[in-house]
Design a protein that fits this description.
The complex is a heterodimer of chains A (211) and B (404). With 211 residues, chain A is α/β, with parallel strands linked by helices. In chain A, 38% of the residues lie in helices and 22% in strands. The chains are: A alpha/beta (211), B mainly alpha (404). Chain B: One of its GO terms (biological process) is intracellular protein transport.
């Protein structure tokens, strides 16, 4: 209650989120922008990477484990196993490159269908790089209509200016919490953790809240 | 204090031979792979081992390290001995012609033959990278290894085993000669260096002219050569049957193997390379930014990756190659010798090829589920981790189920 919220086991729910999409659309930038507010240029992702973010949405303390994947086709055999157990999947494209948008239906939606083990898993379409408005080739309307077709959430953002970046993960988390089966999954992971915490708390004499 | 620099796992039986071998043993291994013509040099090599390595006795600190380090190295050197032959023969067969079938995944023979040497080449590669990392040791050690290194490098015929032994401890920054030698790009015989470098550099220039050409130039050239030799191609497995489809050679051709179709496919990979080269080491002025210097360096990385991708259709370009390439180019481009620095692109290309040849099977998608593919490699890594750090292994594989 009085803790800083940085304590790693201090959360109510835990969810696994996956970032996918073509190479260079800004998946890692989106993640880094969300996690650390930094907007530096990043090297290409090799294989997979993950980061953890603790934040509060709708009065709940959440732990998001966000998996960031390499976009190049060569890595798909390796990244496919990371779809397992994800409660949320973010499909990212670059609004200044049409091929990254068409590949969402040609490639990425199919990958999700093939490898996602979670029937109710929440999907979200994200058009990145809206700060480069003059170079835009995919309109907002096109994005919305594809999102409708997939039956998923939609948002445009910019990892560089951080516009809509927080909102993207917040909306995704809220939507996940609306689905009872996903909520259940998130809290079982959380419960296990709380249980562990309690056991730990029994051993040392009470008094220290941060160790 | 030096002892600390050699982690325990490095002394495990995996890396060193069970019975520490005296240095002459390793020189034999080096000798055995040499052509008979070089047997005359044997005396020189043996002499290099018998005579004291350093004119001034090294500081006592380095003494305790000597036995373990030489035992580690005699092991890896002898393996490398077999390896070098493979590397050089790959070099000859693959780069002799531009239609390079050998690297293509469809031919498993070529790929699997190198597998047994994968680990050792990777180790050699690691040595080469030590060049760019300043040795974080005490000054005394630096000086003695620097002396040993300079002495070894000044020999007429360099003892590669000895050089690797010295380099395994990490060596100070310097010219690119060490990297090119350690990777097996330069032959140990100094007398051959000028001709070898001239040959390789002109070969690379040739690759660039041939491979960075646009399709209309290719078709024009092909029509010309078709007129000259009109021989039927009997052994083609439907792969690279270029010469027989002159009629399909136009930009709207639907023929899959059409030059133009290949061009459009290649455009995709070239765009990928361009995107990645631009974001290679974004924190270093050498590689990134708008300066003409950074741009010319990016151009060099791009050329190397494109030439490699075209010569190796079974591998093409895989993200991460830029990371392997960048330090090599950085070292060679910063060579104090102007002549070498100017040819850094060509030299880097061949060093890159040598380095990658040790683990290129990991890049080939068709080999993913084979014993030599990337999955098997990851499984081996996991087993090693389990052996050496069970707690971490359990955390990754069981608690968090990082892999399925």
């Amino acid at each position: 209650m009085g803790s800083s919220g940085q304590g790693q086991s201090n959360f109510d729910l835990s969810f696994k989120i996956l970032l996918i999409g073509d190479s260079g659309v800004g998946k890692s930038s989106l993640l880094v922008s969300f996690i650390s507010n930094a907007v530096d240029d990043l090297a290409p992702t090799i294989g997979v990477d993950f980061k953890i973010k603790l934040f509060t949405v709708g009065g709940k303390k959440l732990k998001l484990t966000i998996w960031d994947t390499a976009g190049q086709e060569r890595f798909r055999t390796l990244t496919s196993s990371y779809y397992r157990g994800a409660q949320g999947i973010v499909l990212v494209y670059d609004v200044t490159r049409r091929d990254t948008f068409t590949n969402l239906s040609d490639v990425w939606a199919k990958e999700v269908e093939l490898y996602s083990t979670n029937q109710d898993c929440i999907k979200m379409l994200v058009g990145n790089k809206v700060d480069r408005e003059s170079e835009r080739v995919v309109s907002r309307e096109e994005g919305i209509s594809l999102a409708k077709e997939f039956g998923c959430l939609y948002l445009e953002c910019s990892a560089r200016t951080r516009e809509n970046v927080e909102r993207c993960f917040e909306e995704l988390a809220l939507k996940i919490m609306e689905v009872p089966s996903l909520l259940e999954e998130g809290s079982t992971v959380g419960k296990r953790n709380i249980l562990k915490q309690k056991q730990e708390q029994h051993t040392p004499p009470a008094g220290s809240c941060c160790s | 204090m030096v002892k600390k620099r050699v982690p325990d796992w490095l002394n495990s039986s995996l890396w060193s031979s069970p019975q520490p071998q005296p240095p002459p043993q390793s020189s034999d291994a080096v000798e055995s792979r040499d052509p008979p013509a070089r047997a005359a040099d044997k005396s020189a090599v043996v002499e290099s081992i018998v005579e004291p390595r350093v004119p001034v006795p090294p500081p006592p600190v380095t003494r305790p390290v000597e036995p373990p380090s030489s035992s580690v190295h005699s092991g890896s050197t002898s393996v490398k001995g077999e390896n070098s032959d493979l590397l050089s023969c790959h070099n000859g067969s693959n780069y002799g012609n531009n239609n390079n079938h050998n690297y293509n995944s469809e031919e498993d023979n070529g790929s699997s033959s190198t597998n047994s040497t994968t680990a050792s080449t990777a180790a050699v590669g690691a040595n080469a990278f030590a060049v760019s990392v300043p040795a974080a040791s005490s000054l005394a050690v630096d000086i003695s290894s620097q002396d040993q290194l300079l002495q070894e490098l000044s020999r007429k015929f360099i003892n590669m085993g000895e050089l690797r032994r010295i380099a395994s401890q990490g060596i100070p920054d310097g010219d690119g000669v060490r990297a090119t030698l350690l990777l097996g790009y330069l032959p140990p015989d100094r007398a051959l260096w000028p001709s070898e470098l001239a040959k390789k550099r002109s070969q690379y220039k040739h690759f660039k002219e041939e491979l960075l050409m646009n399709p209309s130039d290719i078709t024009r050239k092909m029509e010309k050569s078709n007129l000259e030799n009109n021989k039927p191609d009997g052994e083609d497995k439907g792969f690279l049957s270029r010469s027989e489809i002159t009629h399909g050679e136009h930009p709207l051709s639907l023929v899959k193997s059409s030059i133009w179709n290949q061009f459009f496919q290649e455009t995709e990979i070239i765009e990928q390379i361009e995107r990645d080269v631009k974001r290679t080491h974004p924190d270093m002025h050498f590689f990134s930014g708008d300066s003409a210097f950074a741009e010319s360096n990016q151009e060099a990385l791009k050329n190397i990756l494109i030439v490699f991708a075209k010569l190796n259709p079974g591998i093409r370009y895989v993200q991460g190659m830029n990371e392997i390439l960048a330090p090599l180019f950085y070292v060679l481009k910063n060579d104090p010798n102007e002549e070498n620095a100017v040819s850094a692109e060509a030299d880097t290309f061949f060093c890159f090829v040598e380095l990658l040849s040790g683990f290129r099977d990991n890049f080939v998608k068709q080999l993913d589920n084979s014993v030599v593919g990337i999955r098997a490699t990851i499984t081996r890594l996991s087993q090693l981790l389990k052996e050496h750090d069970k707690e971490l292994w359990r955390h990754l594989e069981i608690t968090t189920k990082v892999r399925s």
